[in-house]
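User: Please predict the structure of the protein below. I'd like the answer in structure-token form so I can feed it into my own downstream comparison script.

Assistant: Understood. Taking the following sequence of 256 residues as input:
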Amino acid sequence: MLTGIDHIVIVVSDLDRAVTAFTRAGFTVTLGGRHNVGTHNALIGLADSSYIELIAFLDPVPGHPWFKALERGGGLVDFCMRTDDLETDVMKLRAAGAAISDPATMTRDRPDGYRLKWDLAIPHPPDTGQLPFLIRDETPRDERVPRKRSHLNGVTGLKRVTVAANDPFRAGKLLGSVSGAALSRQARTDLNAQGFSLEIGPHEIHWLTPNTPRTPLAEWLERRGPSPYSATLYAPTSPRTPDDLLVMRAARLDFE
């Protein structure tokens, strides 16, 4: 069963510059290390146990969806959900009509030499970008997630991921078939959009389609295709400095 959003993924062109920018914006950033697939990352742990992943490619990978997104400006590109039964959740998604891979093992070598290992199941077209990828840890999750989770800018956790979708009902229904959560209608006046949402654990996922063609969400959907549009962070006491706002806007993050 799905237990909540594990992390959100922000792709950047230069990891060192991203670490500097997010640190200046008041985040506590932890270097993550190098993956076995040619990427490296840094992590921002949140008090609700989710985290933000800043990821960069060490070498170009033209066919990778995240690399394609990087070529179109980068920022928020994906989100991942925790599961306590990966094989069963994959089978349920397929039974509901989703396209998703078999679980495959990945590793990351931390700067201290510790090797992390986990299994991922990744959506395929047409569900790439609209459904999360799923994760199950083989090494302890506490070794993968940063232990430092307090931030000068006041961010305490992740509230929601908003996904630009061609068919919000289909995406929500597919994930609802695994989570057991009830699908709710959404009308988002801030984005001039409508769709459906699920609450899974402490987090919300909104799948939205624009009401009119001349809105930022419609432009995103045309330029980037169905994909995460923004993520909303809890930050009750967050200072809105120019650095905060520039970094947040580029990454497609907002505060609430």
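That's the full token string. The domain at 2-144 is CATH 3.10.180.10 (2,3-Dihydroxybiphenyl 1,2-Dioxygenase; domain 1).
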